[in-house]
Amino acid sequence: MSWFEDSIMARKAIARGEARAEASLTEAQQGRYHYVYSAAIPPALTIDPGTVVTCETHDAFEGAITHETDKPTEKLNFPFLNPQNGPIRVNGAEKGDTIAVHIDSIVPRGPQPRGTTVIMPEFGGLVPTADTALLTAPLPERVRKLHVTEDGTVWNDRVTLPYEPFIGTIGTAPQIEAISSLVPDYYGGNMDLPDVAPGAVVYLPVQAEGGFLFLGDCHAAQGDGELCGVAIEHPTVTTVRVDLIKGWTIKAPRLENERFYMTIGSSRPMEDAARGAYRELIRWMAADFGFDEIDAYMLLTQCGRIRLGNMVDPKYTVGASVLKSIVGIAQ
Amino acid sequence: MSWFEDSIMARKAIARGEARAEASLTEAQQGRYHYVYSAAIPPALTIDPGTVVTCETHDAFEGAITHETDKPTEKLNFPFLNPQNGPIRVNGAEKGDTIAVHIDSIVPRGPQPRGTTVIMPEFGGLVPTADTALLTAPLPERVRKLHVTEDGTVWNDRVTLPYEPFIGTIGTAPQIEAISSLVPDYYGGNMDLPDVAPGAVVYLPVQAEGGFLFLGDCHAAQGDGELCGVAIEHPTVTTVRVDLIKGWTIKAPRLENERFYMTIGSSRPMEDAARGAYRELIRWMAADFGFDEIDAYMLLTQCGRIRLGNMVDPKYTVGASVLKSIVGIAQ
Amino acid sequence: MSWFEDSIMARKAIARGEARAEASLTEAQQGRYHYVYSAAIPPALTIDPGTVVTCETHDAFEGAITHETDKPTEKLNFPFLNPQNGPIRVNGAEKGDTIAVHIDSIVPRGPQPRGTTVIMPEFGGLVPTADTALLTAPLPERVRKLHVTEDGTVWNDRVTLPYEPFIGTIGTAPQIEAISSLVPDYYGGNMDLPDVAPGAVVYLPVQAEGGFLFLGDCHAAQGDGELCGVAIEHPTVTTVRVDLIKGWTIKAPRLENERFYMTIGSSRPMEDAARGAYRELIRWMAADFGFDEIDAYMLLTQCGRIRLGNMVDPKYTVGASVLKSIVGIAQ
Amino acid sequence: MSWFEDSIMARKAIARGEARAEASLTEAQQGRYHYVYSAAIPPALTIDPGTVVTCETHDAFEGAITHETDKPTEKLNFPFLNPQNGPIRVNGAEKGDTIAVHIDSIVPRGPQPRGTTVIMPEFGGLVPTADTALLTAPLPERVRKLHVTEDGTVWNDRVTLPYEPFIGTIGTAPQIEAISSLVPDYYGGNMDLPDVAPGAVVYLPVQAEGGFLFLGDCHAAQGDGELCGVAIEHPTVTTVRVDLIKGWTIKAPRLENERFYMTIGSSRPMEDAARGAYRELIRWMAADFGFDEIDAYMLLTQCGRIRLGNMVDPKYTVGASVLKSIVGIAQ
Fold first, then answer.
1. What is the C-alpha to C-alpha distance for residues D245 and D248, in angstroms, rounded to an integer?
2. Is there a smaller number of Cβ atoms within 10 Å at the N or the C end of chain D?
3. Partner residue opposite A136 with nearest CB, options C133, C137, C269
4. D42 touches chain C (CB under 8 A)
5. Which one of D132, D301, D310 makes the best mutation probe of the A interface by having the most chain A beta carbons within 10 Å?
6. What's the CA gap between A219 and A106, in Å, rounded?
7. What are the angstrom distances between the C-alpha of D292 and each of A40, A115, D298?
């Protein structure tokens, strides 16, 4: 018996986390990719809970950077960055429900060198930006084009990074806003959290009827914080199983995998992202694991785990988790 | 000769800051008020540069709080807060231009007590919020309904606050996003900066064709930081003169009045808002006042002024200013 | 009758704010200047409450920068910066008491050009530092030596800045720590707050027996935030009246002048400095002005004022104030 | 062959990381424990490089909390918290050198229940504090006394936490300051970083002649961030091997274990701690691992790891690490 049978998705979702139908969003089916998370965009696909959706995702630059001699400032056209597949309308989803997404697989696609990372001005964790607005001159632009396969990413003669793919940007639409896909927030979005990986289930709050699921921005590897702002971006075939949990209301994304439960906070400064994540985890432990809130606070002090997603986006993203071996299985 | 004749609006805008036409957005003309800043909303009004527009603004709660016994959590329906007049489409405005708004007057309207301020959970500068997410219990809700006239706001038997009205929320639409009117950012929005007052000119960057000007959320008085998150909110008749500066590109709102030039930054943490504002002021001094950038940096160290707008919104807002008596008049 | 007669110093301090004795700390009398705030340093002077003390202060660089061709990185020897007069032991001062310091006058001294400001690496509000640790190259070092008199500071042919002197660094010793004079905190220190000016009274919490008052780092002018990190530093003759308030316990520096009461917070990020200052002001209004705490919170939302001291020191400093015309006179 | 033979300690330190002498700091030998990190305190012990020192550490409350009915606010006497063993003077240590500390073992001592964790007012990551100064009422005080052995900490009937001990507070003395042992900074101190565990080597910068090593505050277990501010505090016998690396100058603590190299940053806001740690790691990779700085920046973007130490102390602590399997062995 797999852990998945005890997952919230398997126990609470309409289709019990099963694959009952199939659909796809190839480049051709997707047509125009999207740069905002919005419920005003006509769905690219409408599905029932329990549908496996196979998406051809673009890289975060929509393939615009093809050579190491390219200049990002010349090739990129802000705000048309981080193209997203979707929106996927989930039948029956209403405000207050939760969409559960099991990540089945992420496979690289497209011609080599298919991996891209860059340094560009006013973007990154250790350079001045529009927010941390300093006077010092930017670093020189630099582009790396990288050979990426399921065996890894060749960085140089010495270093090959393991292929540890995940979905950088995934979420539902806000109720009335249309927010750039560069932003992470309570509905998901550009969280850049490496735990959003094959085998995990992501839970996303429904704000608008139909949920309007978007995803894209898959990374072949990424360190904690996505330091220079650009992971190993690559186009993929990403397959997810989408289900719906009626009446389970969450305030921010949650994640579950074989080992732990996680809540995800996005905010600035970074301590506020950590606070948001930990507070939700405490409230979850009180609601579904039989803890008194203060006891959960004290216990997480001894065993909580923090994963830094990004320290470069308009909000920083932090996941707070606790082992299933400690807290048991959610009610 | 008034200082206005030397203003950037008078010297650079198409209508030279003159009132060449009139229009209005009464409650009836406005119809539905708006809760996002978006260029996708059909204009409530289309004007030529040089038009004086008289707006009937609602208070930030759209009048929903009428008695001191009201509970904000029962009366308010998030995210339908901070209703805005507009959008006002400005003919000829294109990305890279700047809309200049002279604030002619703000006059309170509506039945007494027309002023409202409240304490509500998860909102305010000295309580836990969705960002500064702590475990301590919220303060009790409290509502004050206040008698507001142009003579002031009666706080209690001892204290009457002078009527120092300003526009809490004003801005243009983002290029492709639709952002809640509760947010301040590079396009203006919910800055809650008391200098946005009658007599001042606000300069706003055009992101989308037509500019799409929104405004609302007028305050009868406000301290620096809008500490509990709710100033003395009141409905008004607000009259603004709207003009267009072609080809003058700014990255964030600017403001000019008789005494100073100001740049406005919105970010978190607060130091980043201050950095953004000061960096833009330095770059402005370099571009239009004949300073070398480092000299401007060193001089502002000695004479720059900071005004805190809000410390409660999703981004904090800070204005950085320098006296005209020190830097002279912009080229 | 001057406002001072109603001041807390005049009403609560042992010597009633009167000048009952005189003392001085000339360069010769001071001997070694100090770079930490510590109660372990033997007093340079011991006084009774009610003593007027005239101090010859050094500039923040102890006069080491004499020419515009000097390189700060070659002339300065970290951590031996920001030399302080004192410590001044105040007879009778015990933990829980408050030292009141009326600033009588600040007069520039020393040969011209006696004013100094500099750009140096890893220091300043708009450059990478040891805290905001970025990879971009520092700005070039630059030194300005400036002619400073009580008529002002000559910046260039066009600009003369008014002489608006204040004490950049003033405070008591921590109980058991010895903290660099570059740091501001709950005991005062390097606050760089322009309101600490002639005519004002500063209230400082006593942590260790004798209080151990230090002061130095006078500025001929400074903008809000002390943006590049170095105001117009200059040597002075600074005269202060020092008194003692028994049993009035404060958690952080306070200030009073003709117009307002102020509390001072130093922290990072900047919003925490503002929170600390405003919370203390609210608690003061509750303790000594007859307000209920929530009412004070709501009223300061409408009329509180924020002054940014520094945004460059190890902690940022913010003053929160309220007009005496609004809250009346402290009990 | 153990990894240790390739460690920096084994290759660069005077005693080559070997145990050449033994010394101890039992409670009796230590006598008075210390609450500041200072080079002005007479050494409790003077050693040559290569000495194994066995310390009887107190818990962070010096044993003052003995029952679950104790009230921390009544039992604790701020600032006399977090008692430290030491200072240990290391012969030959001069400013610019580095002290290497191999943590040999940590063993719990004292009568059961020897573990303590508490909730107390104005302290913790999810409550108002002196810095994040809010108006909401504190959580009720709570004390847990816990049975701790090398088999684990019994939290309740359901949960036993593994014994994963580490040194919460360890560092050298600042050059001229005396800083509370509650503070972490560039010299180490109260970092509360779980990687400072048996088997690791910690590198600490020497600021003052003799280095003046302090340590204490051992935790039986701790989650990332030490959320409520108090881990499972317990008294221990902690054994460390202390060595000296001449002429290897570091700006902040570093750590090495079998798997990775780590740099440690302490600052506020949390992103600044992360920036500081990552910048030092990049500079280290450039200095000792043959990387160009920008390449190191881009590579850490793909594989850097962040460990949050504390989010509760006066500065937050973050470790940034990179696997030895990726970067090789330091030159």
1. 6
2. N
3. C137
4. no
5. D301
6. 9
7. 47, 21, 10
Looking at the predicted complex, does its ipTM rise above 0.95? yes
Q: How is chain D split into domains, by residue range?
A: 3-249, 256-327
Contact (CB, 8 A) for A238 and A175: no
DSSP string of B100-153, one letter each residue: EEEEEEEEE-SSSS-EEEEE-TT-STTS--SSS---SPPPPPEEEEE-EETTEE
d(CA A155, CA D327): 12
Q: Which amino acid is at C53?
A: V
Write out the E strands in B26-111: 36-38, 45-47, 51-57, 85-90, 98-108
3-state secondary structure of D319: strand
Q: Determine contact, residues C312/C303, Cβ cutoff 8 Å.
A: no
Between A126, A127, A135, which is nearest C126 by CB?
A: A135
On whether the CB atoms of residues B248 and B291 are closer than 8 A, the answer is no
| Tokens of residue C143, six digits | 């030194």
Query: Is there a contact between B21 and B47 (Cβ–Cβ < 8 Å)?
Result: yes
* CA pair distance B188, C196, nearest whole angstrom: 34
Answer yes or no: do A134 and B35 touch at CB < 8 A. Answer: no
Q: In the B/C pair of chains, how many CB contacts fall below 8 A? A: 150
Which chain B residues contact residue A134 at CB under 8 A?
A: 275, 279
Angle of helix A270-288 versus helix A293-303 axis, rounded to 10: 120
- Whether the CB of A155 is below 8 Å from some CB of chain D: the reply is yes
Structure tokens at A270: 């970074």
Separation of alpha carbons D211 and C118, rounded Å: 33
- Both tokens assigned to B244: 């267009």
Q: Can you identify the CATH homologous superfamily of domain A3-250?
A: Acetamidase/Formamidase-like domains (2.60.120.580)
Q: How far apart are CA B151 and CA D5, in angstroms?
A: 80
Instruction: Enumerate residues 226 to 265 of chain D having a beta carbon within 8 A of any beta carbon in chain B.
Output: none
Domain D256-327 has CATH 3.10.129.10: no
In chain D, what residues touch B126 (CB-CB under 8 Å)? 133-135
Token pair listed for C139: 């700005």
pLDDT in tens, chain B (331 residues): 599 999 999 999 999 999 999 999 999 999 999 999 999 999 999 999 999 999 999 999 999 999 999 999 999 999 999 999 999 999 999 999 999 999 999 999 999 999 999 999 999 999 999 999 999 999 999 999 999 999 999 999 999 999 999 999 999 999 999 999 999 999 999 999 999 999 999 999 999 999 999 999 999 999 999 999 999 999 999 999 999 999 999 999 999 999 999 999 999 999 999 999 999 999 999 999 999 999 999 999 999 999 999 999 999 999 999 999 999 999 8
Partner A contacted by C135 (CB < 8 A) = yes
Minimal-distance CA residue of chain B relative to C154: B299
What is the sign, positive or negative, of the torsion defined by CA atoms of D73, D76, D81, D82?
Answer: negative
Yes or no, beta carbons of B136 and D138 under 8 Å apart: yes
Q: Which residues contact C76 (CB under 8 A, 6 or more apart)?
A: C61, C64, C65, C120
With an 8 Å Cβ cutoff, are D144 and A274 in contact? no
Verify whether the Cβ–Cβ distance A304 to D223 is below 8 Å: yes
CATH number at C3-249: 2.60.120.580
Cβ–Cβ below 8 Å for A136 and C132: no
Q: Which of B224, B260, B292 to mutate to test the interface with C (most CBs of C within 10 A)?
A: B224
Tokens of C237: 């003759």
- Which of B122, B132, B136 is most worth mutating to test chain D (most D CB atoms within 10 A of its CB)? B136
Do the domains spanning B3-250 and B256-327 agree at the CATH topology level? Answer: no
Q: Which residue has the tokens 């935030």?
A: C225
Cα–Cα distance, D262 to D242 (Å, whole number): 19
Compute the Cα dihedral for D133, D138, D139, D142 and give only its sign.
positive
